[in-house]
Amino acid sequence: MPYWGMALALGPNINSAMEKEDEHRAIEMVQKAQRLADRATPGEQAYIDALATRYLGRKRVKRKGLDEAYAKAMRAVAQRFPEDADAATLFAEALMDLRPWDLWKQDGRPQPGTDEIVTTLESVLARNPDHPGACHYYIHAVEASSQPERALLCAERLPGLMPGAGHLVHMPAHIYMRVGKYHEATERNQQAAQIDQQYLAGRHQADEYADGYYTHNLHFLWASLAMEGRNVEAMKAARDLTATITAEESRKDRWKELYLPTPIFSMIRFGRWEELLKEPVPPKGLRLMEGMWRLGRGLALVATGRLPGAEGEHVVLAGLTKQIHRDRTAEDKTERTLLKIAERVLAGELAARRQRYDDAIRLFEDAIKMEEALPSSEPPLWPLSVRHYLGTVLLLAGRPSEAEAVYHADLLRHPDNGWALIGLIQSLKAQHKTHQAAEAEDRFTKAWARADFMPAASRM
Prior knowledge:
Number of helices: 25
Shape: globular
Number of strands: 0
Strand content: under 5%
Helix content: 55-70%
Distance between the termini: 56 Å
Order of helices and strands: HHHHHHHHHHHHHHHHHHHHHHHHH
């Protein structure tokens, strides 16, 4: 079974496609497991035979077809051994690998196969609520749904089930962020980062866990701190994150570049304008990072009344969005969308500053459409909700009832976030809805209990 386990680990998962160089090793491991299978139990033999379909299928069958064959084989194993919670959990995970991070549509309806994943995991948890694998996958299975609170019990249990595994200690944050428990998300990520640091220190070297999971925990920590209004700690988390990533690494792995603008986003979020203007020029060859740097400078110049300089930054930013002519890869598509959102936000702020509110509203509404079309991710790929900008401009334009609707929509996506609540309070007061405003103020007080920053509006 150790050979089976190694072969399983070499395969794809929802966070990583299978590397070509791992295929030969996986085949070798599963063949060794097959040769020793006569010593295994019937259930273990079934696991080995099922995994063999993932690696030893017909030569011309592509990876997707092999993964589908493995999921089909694991369904048969789970049906053959209905009391085996591990078999059902592995089956659910095999189904998840067929649609990584794409289990739910934008309107909250399940994608094909999602219902089977959810019901399979719920059947395991009904029998064994302390099953760490089922809890882990269940959190991922429902976090992007319209009812993420279904996994709160797993979120509460999972850290205690495997307290030495940093990733699993972090996992509850995926649910806590979706239900508005930002402080709990912060605590889980702080604890996970400490566990990761101990693990990495013990190995005396970085590895792919550090590249993928430790950085993810730091990024998540920044996101939850920002939602709590903890300016100083959020900035530190952002700097800690980018200290783990070099420019050269980001050029080779473009997904890593997504982390690099985090300090820029933190300075924008908390209105650290003069600090932003002192931020050095990014290294060459990092188009997304340069775009967000231009965004940050442009917003800082708008906020401090230096509009000609902001216009110059907008021209450069708009030019960067045109450099990606085709969406040849997922990275191209994501980078292009993020740059276009940034361009619209800066253009919208320039228009708002000149009191061209209709233009600003149109630009922000366009940006929201793009923001909502981004792939599902937690934290969001675009971390500065554009609704916070739209709501502020609607208030400036004397349209508080529309602003109220915008803030309610944001609170549906990010429950009890203080940034939207401050805007909601302002929009309600502008309509003389005194009782509702008082209720929103109570919610804001709770949301901002640990904040070191008081915003004047939903965006700075």
